[in-house]
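Sequence only, no structure available. Ideas?
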Amino acid sequence: MIIDPINFSSQLLVLLLGLVTSYTDITEKKIKNVHLIVIGAAAVALGLMQAPPHPASAPDTFVNVLVASAIGIPLFISRMWRGGDVKLFIVYSLLMPATGQEGVFLASPVVLFISSFLAALMIVLPFEIYEVFWTNRLSLKSKEIYWDNIKLAFLGFASFNWIIFSFFYKLKFFKYPLVVAVFSVLLFPFLNRWVMKWAQNALGHWRNIIMLAVMAGFIIHLLFIPREFFWTELGRSVRSIFIFSTIFFIFKCAIDKANVSKERMPFAPMLMIGYYASYTGFLKKVASLIMWMR
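Reply:
I predicted one. Tokens follow.
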């Protein structure tokens, strides 16, 4: 059996990146730039060594970095990720070979993002359920976080999805619910950060904005969804919106509580798990489960 030295070195870098950043993220609550620079530089060097025999690798790497930046920067702006998380995500994208799932998820960093997101959800969800249902020592500030995020998730985020789901249906994306979820999470922070401020000045109370969004979404559904499938797809939209909003609520609560308590949730281990999960059948099983739920 012949071992490709470039691929072997790349996998060693991934393992080193995961172990080092996970250790510092858990013990020191930070991802150190020096580790990212050294491993990132090594990843670029490996890419340059690989480029002459495999000229397609350079454009693929560029696309990976571009897609990773397009995912990470909005999450940083919306304060759902910190700078170290974004930079680590981009370095992982430098080291990612094709996963075999790009036909559905568009690019390798999207696969990595979804796998890491789901890994984090599986770890965070039990703790959130425990705190909500079994722990009665919620501070006033924690209760305010829950209430604010209920409004944000089940009114704001849900209304946003209610409008864009019909566009996704028209673009044939709706049969890929995980892709739809990624676009929803990435687009909503921009809407909430800038458009909502304009809408509140123009329309007044947030209830007026929600009512307008519900009416607009219903009209768009009527325009884009064929009449023979309308009520079926409408029901699927409502179920999907509830599932996505619940997931969004759980994550937003976890992030906000971490910001209040100054106890940052380590995301480097999630990215490491997500990287290796990207090369398994993990996403297909989750997608099958979501399609069954819908």
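The radius of gyration is 21 Å.
Hope that gets you unstuck.
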